[in-house]
Design goal:
Length: 62
Amino acid sequence: MPSNRSTKTDRVQEPLRESGKVKFEVYGEEMVEKTVKLSGNSGRVYLPPDWVGCRVKIIRVD
């Protein structure tokens, strides 16, 4: 018998129809907010040196 309850996956990414954006819920250790700078034909963000070797996730907010 199918359940009417939504799963966690259903709740994590809820589209905001009027703006075309998606909501992400991320758990982590630290967060920094930076602006991407031009670097040749791409962009670059500098992060703290103690983050070297760590996994990071980048989310564009605008």
